[in-house]
């Protein structure tokens, strides 16, 4: 699908979907067909990367110049609101007159960008300012997701170390397993964000250095600010990654403690029954000459020996602090 945007009285408005269009500033290709790609390529004179080319990870395939335009690819996150985060690529073809975006997903910054521009319009919508505003929206979304992850990790920490009272072993183990799955989902989100921030950290200085001859007056300063924001977000992401690892290890440790408590109870129970079992085993042997067999009170004495040995073992364990 092709969506065209142009400048009208300082505002960014949608235009009729006709290629070429003389007023088009931003051309958004969402899951484009081959015919749509060909039409855009004829209009701007630059080859649009295919989906396979966008997925390549080497830097030379993600950041390059072609026929006076800059072609840069960023990794983005989508599906956070639906609870199914995934990565998607977005390519920006930036020239002095046009900005072309190619994407095969629908991340939130693109969906909300038109409304955001209406709230904070630029004095003169141009290709580079639209590009800067789009990257800024992507960075803001990454920051929002990191804040969401941080709040969730704080809730997990409170639940693990402050709010958890005495619970049944089965209930505690189930709760900890759910927390472990929750941390795994947060780790997946942070991993995608790490990849996204890394791609943006490379993309922004590449554009600032290679398009300085035709960038708007305010664009370089805003790109530098985006670089600073990306550095701070990358550092914050590293802190969250370390916290996730710590909470995962702590959760696994608590699961092991819960399981060890069960094993400890079973082990002690087995040891408590060992002396009575020994007594019963001795007097259950089928020897012809066992003097105790002729005693009139042999049976109750054997039972008493079993009980005394079990009770003595119990109090001995208790005196050692093992119970």
From TrEMBL:
Keywords annotated in UniProt: Cell inner membrane, Cell membrane, Ion transport, Magnesium, Membrane, Transmembrane, Transmembrane helix, Transport
Major subcellular site: membrane
Molecular function as annotated in GO: cobalt ion transmembrane transporter activity; magnesium ion transmembrane transporter activity; nickel cation transmembrane transporter activity
Substrates-to-products reaction catalysed: Mg(2+)(in) = Mg(2+)(out)
UniProt entry tagged with the keyword Membrane: yes
Location of this chain's protein in the cell: Cell inner membrane
Cellular component per GO, a single term: plasma membrane
Alphabetical list of Pfam families matching this protein: CorA
InterPro entries named in the record: CorA_cytoplasmic_dom, CorA_MIT, CorA_TM1_TM2, MgTranspt_CorA/ZnTranspt_ZntB
Membrane-protein topology: Multi-pass membrane protein
Domain of life: Bacteria
TM stretches of this protein: 265-285, 297-317
Keyword match Isomerase: no
Family: Belongs to the CorA metal ion transporter (MIT) (TC 1.A.35) family.
This protein's name: Magnesium transport protein CorA
Gene that specifies this protein: corA
């Amino acid at each position: 699908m092709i969506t065209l945007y142009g400048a009208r009285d300082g505002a960014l408005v949608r235009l009729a979907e006709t290629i070429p269009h003389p007023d088009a500033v931003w051309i958004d290709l969402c899951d484009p067909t081959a015919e749509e790609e060909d039409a855009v390529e004829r209009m701007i004179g630059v080859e649009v990367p295919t989906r396979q080319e966008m997925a390549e990870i080497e830097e030379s395939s993600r950041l390059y110049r072609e026929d006076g335009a800059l072609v840069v690819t960023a990794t983005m996150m989508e599906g956070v609101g639906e609870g199914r985060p995934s990565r998607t690529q977005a390519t920006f073809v930036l020239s002095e007159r046009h900005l072309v975006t190619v994407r095969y997903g629908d991340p939130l910054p693109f969906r909300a960008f038109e409304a955001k521009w209406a709230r904070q319009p630029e004095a003169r919508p141009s290709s580079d300012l639209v590009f800067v505003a789009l990257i800024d929206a992507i960075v803001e979304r990454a920051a929002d997701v990191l804040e969401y992850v941080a709040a969730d990790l704080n809730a997990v920490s409170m639940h693990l170390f402050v709010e958890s009272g005495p619970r049944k072993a089965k209930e505690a183990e189930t709760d900890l397993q759910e927390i472990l799955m929750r941390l795994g989902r947060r780790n997946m989100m942070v991993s995608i964000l790490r990849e996204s921030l890394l791609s943006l950290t490379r993309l922004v200085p590449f554009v600032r250095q290679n398009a300085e001859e035709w960038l708007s007056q305010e664009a370089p300063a805003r790109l530098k600010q985006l670089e600073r924001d990306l550095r701070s977000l990358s550092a914050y992401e590293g802190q969250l990654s370390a916290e996730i690892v710590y909470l995962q290890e702590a959760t696994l440790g608590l699961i092991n403690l819960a399981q060890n408590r069960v094993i400890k109870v079973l082990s002690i129970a087995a040891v408590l029954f060992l002396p009575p079992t020994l007594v019963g085993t001795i007097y259950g042997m089928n020897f012809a000459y066992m003097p105790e067999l002729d005693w009139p009170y042999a049976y109750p004495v054997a039972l008493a020996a079993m009980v005394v040995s079990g009770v003595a073992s119990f109090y001995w364990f208790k005196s050692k602090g093992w119970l």
